[in-house]
Structures are given as C-alpha cells and as structure tokens.
Amino acid sequence: MKKIIFLFSVLMVSFCAIAQNKPADTSYTLPDALVSQSGKKITTVKDWEKIRRPEILKLFEENVHGKTPVKKIPLRFITTSINTSALNGTATRKQVRIYFSKDDKYYMDVLLYLPNNIKKPAPVFLGLNFGGNQAIHADTGILISDRWFRYAEAPAYVNHLATEASRGTQSSDWPVEKILAAGYGLATIYYGDLQPDSSGSVNAGIAPLFYTAGQTMPADDEWGAIGVWAWGLSRAMDYLQKDKDVDAKKVAVVGHSRLGKTALWAGAQDKRFAIVISNNSGEGGAAITRRKYGETIAVMNKAFPHWFSANFKKYNDRENDLPVDFHELIALIAPRPVYVASASKDQWADPVGEYLSAYHATAVYVLYGLKGLNTPVAPGVSQPVGDGYIGYHLREGEHAMRLYDWEQYIRFADRFLKK
Ligand code: GCU
C-alpha cells in the first residue's frame, strides 16, 4: 500500500511539474469588471453597487462556488472554557462551541486567543485551519478535535483521527505569540467541523441542515464544500460580534490554499469582514484562470470534485467561456482592503496569476477613489507591494503560510485596524 501511495505521489509530482512547465496562456481577454452584462459602462460607485457588483456575485454563485442558502438558522454559543492567563499570562484563551441545531448534532468549535497586552476590545484575525485547533499551538488547554482528518500522518493522526501528538504540529503556519504581541487576537476553527474535506461526504457536514423536503444533496447551482466552509466563517463572525472582548468591526479573514479560496469567498459575500487575506489560494482563489498555468479548473475539479458547485465542472477545459475571472472575486471585496500572497516555489498556484488578479481588481478600487496596484508587472521575491488598499507579496519558498506572510499581514492590517 505504502509503495502504491509512493508511486502515486511520484506520478502526481511529475504531472504537476509537466503542467507547470507549460507556459501561461497570455492571449486571453478578461471579462471587464466595469461593463455590465447589458453592456453598460460602470463609472460610479452607485452603479457598481446597484448593478455590476450584484451581477458578478450572482455569476460566481451560479457558475463557480454555488449559492449559499439564505435560510438563517438559530445559533447557540456555549463557552466551554476560558483561561485568562494562557500562554504564560500573555493571552486569554476562550473556546466556544457554536451549535447550529437544537440538538447537539451540528456544531463547530472556535478557539480564540486575545492579547492581554492591549485594552480590549481587540482586532482579530479569523481563519479556518487544516489540522484541528490543537494543531495550531502546543498549548495543552486546547481541546483535541475528534473529527475526521483528510491529511492524517501518524503519529499525529491515526485512522484519520487526531492524537495528542498532533498538538502544535501546524504551529509554523500560526505564529500565535507574534500575532498577540502585535495586539491582535486570533480566532480559528477546524474546517472539518463544517464539512469533511472528502468527496462523497457532503451529508456528513452541515449542508443537510438546509435541504428542502426530499433533497439528498446540493443542487447543481448550490454550494460545495468551499461555500460551506465560508458559511462557517460568517457564523464565527456572528459569534465575534457578540463577544465584548472583540472589536467585530476589525476582523480580518485569512486562509491558506483551499482555505484561502474559502477566505476570499467568505469576504466576497460577507461585508462584515474588514480585511480579506488570501495566502497561496491559487486556482479557484486569487489566480486568473484564463492563464491556464499550474493547476486548471479541470485538474482541480477532478481531484476535488466536492469543493465547488456541480455547475463549475461545465468549465473544465473551457476557461474562456466562464463569464467571470478571479480578479472579479477580488473586486467584490472593494472597498475593503485585500491582501494576496504567493510563494516562489508554489508555481502550482500561479503566483503571477495571483498578482494579476489583485492588479486587475484595482479598477474597482479606483472607482471608490482608492489606490490599488499600479503595474501589471509582478514584484520579485521578498518585495511586498501596495501602499493602498490592495497588498501583495511573493515569499521565498514552498506552498505554506509562514511567519514572513504573517509579518506582512500584520503590517498591512495595522494601517487599517490600528488607526
Ligand atoms: C492542492 C490543490 C490546490 C489547493 C491545495 C491546498 O494542491 O490542487 O487547489 O489550493 O491543494 O489546499 O493545499
């Protein structure tokens, strides 16, 4: 079995290498964020907000992510633990279980650290995590998740379940002490609390809560896992708005990779997120899909058929027919600040395509009289750009979220949230 997995990995790596060596297609024409479907040129904020923004949001809903159900469900917030002198007294750690149903069947667990070094309410970074809350820090007070894990290497995970050994295993993605020292809180949730990251597991997540009579899976234009995960971020925001120690007007939503795709979609739909940060989100996230560089729609939809709506599969190998491209996903975040980050060895996610999305979203920020990015030429490694409302950097190294990334996010967030 190990041999087969090894061979499979070698094949995947070579396949990715081949796909990456293919140069980007630069002959594309992007859909114009500022021309409505009826051909009207959008020149005012009013027309953007009344006509074009709703149109673009709808196009993403119908063709890409799928629709998020509008039904509001009652939430229950149960604080399961509070420690006011966590992490050697530097932090207050709260754990809150948010129930989505009257019974105890549907819930997610929020882990919240707040800095003790500032007067609360505190600004907060909010993001989903891959390894369970206990993986973000070695703090033994964190509840170990008993959910199913897709990426589950022993000894941290055995039979797809987390063990004690998983504590702190993803701490390099979550520099908690640095975030706290900078005067921010951190709220995080294991994404598998909302839906397991596996095709065929939709009914093991929260989606059935929204089914109509007789429905057994989301319709072709309804959400996939990314929509479900993004919904979870908005429910975390519902909680943060109720927590007096949090400044809910100052919440930056952040995510890495598939969870970066998720952060962008959450930020596009929910205007309560003050800043949106995409870390190495790639295809279906920040990257311009028409470049067909690195991962493509078809490759992603085949490997992860459960992430987006069934409708999105219509665009496998038909990028140019998609009525949107991903600069418009970034544009939906305007006028709120947005930050896109890439990594030099993460060609699979198309760093240049990620930059270009941020650049092409600029036109919409300009409508608001705000500064975006002013050149189509992506910067080199370790040269963060953007002194306006759009920020970008290319970190040296692999596909990951690292201290360098966080340093830039904090620097960017400081300009808006520390005023
Ligand atoms: C795969 C996938 C990407 C995704 C990444 C991740 O590489 O192809 O689309 O962003 O996993 O989530 O780590």
How would you concisely characterize the structure shown here?
The chain is an alpha/beta fold and 419 residues long. Helix content is 30%, strand content 18%.
CATH topology: Rossmann fold
Instruction: Return the average pLDDT rounded to an integer.
Output: 95
- H and E order: HHEHEEEEEHEHEHEHHEHEH
Strand numbers in spatial order across the main sheet:
1-2-3-7-4-8-9-10-11
Write up this protein.
This protein has 419 residues and is an alpha/beta fold. It has one domain (2-417): 3-Layer(aba) Sandwich (Rossmann fold), CATH 3.40.50. The protein is 30% helix and 18% strand. The chain is built from ten helices and eleven strands. It has a nine-stranded mixed sheet with strand order 1-2-3-7-4-8-9-10-11, sandwiched between helices. A two-stranded antiparallel sheet has the order 5-6. Strand 5 (157-158) and strand 6 form a beta hairpin. Helix 5 (225-242) packs across helix 6. It is globular, with a radius of gyration of 20 Å. The termini are far apart. The model is unreliable at 1-11 (pLDDT under 50). It binds alpha-D-glucopyranuronic acid. Residues 257-258, 282-283, 295, 300, 303, 348 line the site of alpha-D-glucopyranuronic acid (GCU).
